[in-house]
Write a structure and sequence with these properties.
Elements: H1 4-23, E1 31-35, E2 38-41, H2 42-58, E3 64-66, E4 80-88, H3 90-94, E5 101-108, E6 111-119, E7 124-129, E8 134-137, E9 143-146, E10 158-162, H4 168-177, E11 181-185, H5 188-196, E12 202-206, H6 212-224, E13 228-230, E14 249-253, H7 258-264
Parallel strand pairs: 3-4, 10-11
Antiparallel strand pairs: 1-2, 4-5, 5-6, 6-7, 7-8, 8-9, 12-14, 13-14
Helix pairs in contact: 1-2, 5-6
């Protein structure tokens, strides 16, 4: 099947990074700040080095966009690039909340085609690829196919909300949509894992802050599970963009009612 080797390598690399990340998981995490609300730790750096080594060995010469390294734009010179967040949910990692993940995605011609999200504290991996199903891989190797929960009414949806970056616009979006059920979570990867596992149905991020490495791997998994991810207006996310930002945010749904949701929150975008 398509992307079989890529997914195997991404899964193994994510697990290797997670092992080192857990060695650094403790009460005395040293933190430095790249910007407001943008922390980085030794675990971020360790995960970065391990994943870069794996990808360089298994796919030599292929460009990698990774959070903790400068984007040299070499990823724009070919048809595909790896897009990686070595520790998504750094804030949760620091606060010892078990909602952080290692995320490795692959884009081709601007489209997310393969993704792996590994949750270090459970040892569970979520994976998906173009032409294949979304799957949950347990630590012992057991594989379970995943699909989004069918929902026919927006007001019945459960919205997964950011535990550490919630904006006032989300409350307004919930009112607009008639949604009352919330599922708090850190890490975009963990949020989407809840969607493909049937715990949540919808994720909205309005405004700047989301970057390509936050979205690529979860996007591929969600699509494989029958869901959709776009910008909040319903437009495609271009993973071959020169900018690393998803400028207006993102909208992730379990597929049903996606356009209607985008239409209802349109005036909250920006």
């Amino acid at each position: 099947m398509a992307y079989e080797k890529e997914m195997q390598v991404a899964r193994d690399a994510a697990r290797a990074a997670a092992e080192r990340i857990l060695e650094l998981y403790g009460p005395d995490v040293e933190v430095r700040w790249k910007g407001e609300n943008d922390p980085v730790t030794a675990a971020d750096e360790a995960g970065t080095e391990i994943i870069l080594e794996w990808l360089a060995r298994e796919f030599p010469g292929e460009p990698v966009l990774i959070e903790e390294r400068k984007d040299d734009l070499s990823r724009l010179e070919g048809d595909r690039a790896w897009i990686v967040d070595p520790l998504d949910g750094t804030r949760e990692f620091i606060d010892r909340i078990p909602e952080f993940s290692v995320m490795i995605g692959l884009e081709e011609r601007g489209r997310a085609v393969m993704g792996v999200v590994h949750v270090p504290l459970t040892g569970v991996t979520f994976q998906g690829r173009a032409g294949g199903p979304a799957e949950r891989v347990d630590p012992g190797g057991g594989i379970e196919p995943l699909s989004c929960r069918p929902v026919t009414r927006i007001e019945d949806m459960r919205l997964v909300v950011s535990r550490s970056h919630r904006s006032e616009k989300i409350g307004r979006a919930m009112e607009r949509l008639g949604i009352t059920a919330e599922v708090p979570s850190g890490s975009v990867g963990v949020k989407v894992s809840k969607m493909v596992s049937g715990e949540a149905d919808l994720y909205i991020h309005l405004g700047p802050g989301i970057k390509l490495w936050d979205a690529c791997a979860p996007h591929a998994i969600l699509t494989s599970a029958g869901g959709r991810m776009t910008d909040p207006s319903g437009g495609d996310i271009d993973y071959a963009s020169r900018s690393v930002y998803c400028e207006t945010g993102l909208l992730a749904t379990c597929g049903s009612l996606h356009e209607e949701i985008a239409g209802r929150i349109a005036d909250l975008v920006g």
